[in-house]
Amino acid sequence: MVKGLENYDFPTFFLDFLAEKKITSLNPAQKKSVKAGLLEGNHILACTPTGSGKTAIALLAMVKQLVENRGKVVYLVPLRALASEKFKDMEKLFSKSKYSVGMSTGDLDSTSKYLDRHDVLILTIEKMDSLLRHHCNWIKDVRCIVIDEIHLLNDVSRGPTLEILITLLKQINSKMQLVGLSATIGNPKELAEWLGAELVIDTWRPVKLHKGIYFEGEVEFV
């Protein structure tokens, strides 16, 4: 059992997955997220450095919602390449479970009916927007939606679409838990307030970050 999860009933396939990853305890950001109500269904905005375990925060919420509420969970990403990467990771995680994983990143004019039969969906922001506009009937069954790189709300091209998408999802499905992930948010308090989310901020990273200046083939660390 992972230290910090003793009071929660997670399925064997997930505990085995954590054991394979040699995860025996939660890191600081994950502990803060659990304390903030991640596993009770609270909306969470996690702002932590790259490589600090944000994906695990998302997986904790996704698996908990799948087991308890038997709905769907969605993982939103901004890029197709990232979607493919997450799809491979999710397939490996859920390969020994009863849950199936589906992915869609294109066909913006299609309802992608095949997604109906999957429990875990990996989608790009644009695809999720398209599915909403096509009145996809399974949206009401989503119990957790993870938004990776949520700082793209501030992006000139994707920001407006993502903002409208989040607003519509919250209106359509009030039972859905929202988990936002980012390493670079300039106004985390304001964003958490807008999302109605608990804010989790932590600076811990597994590898110490060194800053330096590269000039004429040499690096001088500050």
Could you please describe the fold and organization of this structure?
With 222 residues, the protein is an alpha/beta fold. It has one domain: Rossmann fold. The chain is built from 7 helices and 9 strands. The strands form 2 sheets. Strands 3-4-2-5-6-1-7 form a 7-stranded parallel beta sheet, with helices on both faces. The longest helix is centred in the first third of the chain and has 16 residues. The protein is globular and about 55 Å long. The mean pLDDT is 90.
Count of individual domains: 1
Total strand segments: 9
User: Which superfamily, in CATH terms, is the homologous superfamily?
Assistant: P-loop containing nucleotide triphosphate hydrolases
The tally of helices reads 7
Shape: globular
Could you give the order of the helices and strands? HHEHEHEEHEHEHEEE
- Report on the biggest sheet: 7 strands, parallel
Indicate the low-confidence ranges by residue numbers: none
How far is the N terminus from the C terminus? 41 Å
Overall mean confidence score, pLDDT: 90
Query: Which range best describes the helical content: under 10%, 10-25%, 25-40%, 40-55%, 55-70% or over 70%?
Result: 25-40%
The CATH C-level class name:
Alpha Beta
